[in-house]
Write a structure and sequence with these properties.
The chain contains nine helices and eleven strands. The chain has about 250 residues and is of the alpha/beta class. The protein folds into two domains: about 70 residues, 60s Ribosomal Protein L30, Chain: A, CATH 3.30.1330; about 160 residues, SPOUT methyltransferase, trefoil knot domain (Alpha/beta knot, 3-Layer(aba) Sandwich). Helix 2 links the parallel strand 2 and strand 3. InterPro entries: Alpha/beta_knot_MTases (IPR029028), Ribosomal_eL30-like_sf (IPR029064), rRNA_MeTrfase_TrmH (IPR004441), SpoU_MeTrfase (IPR001537), SpoU_subst-bd (IPR013123), tRNA_m1G_MTases_N (IPR029026).
Length: about 250
């Protein structure tokens, strides 16, 4: 299977990561050759792949905000749980995994993968069914961070048990009365962080398998944060707790 990656940063990151096969680049007629555009074209020529100059309207159906460029590539290369654990081991770091329970909005998925990549998460786990996968829209939403992040499609309960078997803690994010304030929880060791879906939160079995539940402080009149925003805040707090200088 093939798909189109659109946008300059997503295309650039895909080419840098080299985890996919690439087939051809389409470039809008009259595009200004500077910055990322120059680097992308140079890389494509280095791969000896065809570059097609087309009218901008030809790119419009391939993706929103394509910025005049589209790269035909193989499907997203999903990882397996073992890859994530091995990445942590190779880096000599405590395991840091983000688990997303039936997140369905591609924008939210892309945002969380982008944050996870920025704070050094070793991998992201998503369910194989009923959840958003890594589509070209998610690649765009992540600004290409998907190309560097290991994303595994796996049963979440099994993934959570694997983290526990590796002497890790699994912490679920939710706003219920059962949840502990984040300042009472340690986030600096081997950790799996679970973020639930946009509307329903975590499913009952996933919630039950968490070692701890945490909540963010809320002093305004809005009852909760968007899943991607709340998850990103906790990811940064975990990063801060795990930093050597902390």
């Amino acid at each position: 299977m093939k798909e189109w990656i659109t946008g300059r940063n997503p295309i650039y990151e895909a080419l840098q990561a080299r985890r996919r096969h690439f087939f051809r680049l389409r470039v809008a007629k009259g595009i200004e050759e500077k910055g990322r555009v120059v680097e992308i074209i140079r890389t494509i020529r280095g791969f000896r792949l065809p570059i097609e100059v087309v009218e901008r309207r030809v790119l419009d159906p391939l993706g929103e905000n394509h910025q005049g460029m589209a790269l035909e590539a193989s499907d997203y290369p999903y990882a397996v749980l073992k890859d994530i654990f091995e990445r942590a081991e190779k880096r000599g770091e405590p395991l840091f995994v983000l688990l997303l329970d039936v997140l369905q909005n591609p924008q939210n998925l892309g945002t969380l993968i982008r944050t996870a990549e920025a704070v050094g998460v070793h991998g992201v786990v998503i369910p194989p069914n009923r959840a958003a996968g890594v589509t070209p829209a998610v690649v765009t939403a992540s600004a290409g961070a998907t190309e560097h992040m290991l994303v595994a499609q796996s049963n979440l309960a099994q993934a959570m048990q694997a983290i526990k078997d590796a002497n890790g803690w699994v912490v679920g994010l939710e706003g219920s009365p059962d949840a502990q304030p984040i300042e009472k929880l340690r986030l600096d060791g081997p950790l799996g962080l679970v973020v639930g879906s946009e509307g329903e939160g975590m499913r009952a079995l996933v919630r039950k398998n968490c070692d701890q539940l945490l909540k963010l402080p809320m002093v305004g009149r809005i009852e909760s944060l968007n899943a991607a925003v709340a998850g990103s805040v906790v990811l940064y707090l975990a990063y801060q707790a795990r930093s050597p200088q902390h």
